[in-house]
Amino acid sequence: DGGITQSPKYLFRKEGQNVTLSCEQNLNHDAMYWYRQDPGQGLRLIYYSQIVNDFQKGDIAEGYSVSREKKESFPLTVTSAQKNPTAFYLCASSKNLLDIQYFGAGTRLSVL
Amino acid sequence: AQRVTQPEKLLSVFKGAPVELKCNYSYSGSPELFWYVQYSRQRLQLLLRHISRESIKGFTADLNKGETSFHLKKPFAQEEDSAMYYCALEVTGGGNKLTFGTGTQLKVEL
Prior knowledge:
The structure holds 2 protein chains of 2 kinds. Chain A is mainly beta.
């Protein structure tokens, strides 16, 4: 099904390594978001982007970076500065900042 | 800062029984509230939002500003309702940033 595609489904990171999670959408949405989900903690916002070439920090941006060079793509890099990266990462998009968010299937990141 | 509390981690009910998933929030302004649902092996998706005042799949939720609650209710639970339910809050002018609760796993037993 189309919509929002996250890849890979599972990702393993070595200590000190940067890894990039992909998020692509074909919904022509302007806004995109990255959330982190930990057991018993719900979803927490990492970064969001209202339009191309613009993005804002969310509640837990430290140790992460993003880019928004194309409308359909919003990759998330988990840097070595993120000391506890093991989590489930969800990408979402919405038509604009007033519309509902649609979610991808997620990427599970683990540290080796 | 805003906060969403879902006190029940797991709620187990029998088929046909009423369901109430609790959600309380703290926010000084005028909130927008949502319920999201994640069925097994499916994506997180919007179930309903308070401004729509809809009933989706038999579920309703009423915003009670006095009690700062947005409980999700269904009179008769069905087996297919078994899922993880998240309550979320968007602050006014918050740029569509959602604050999620920790979720409640609903299990409907036969």
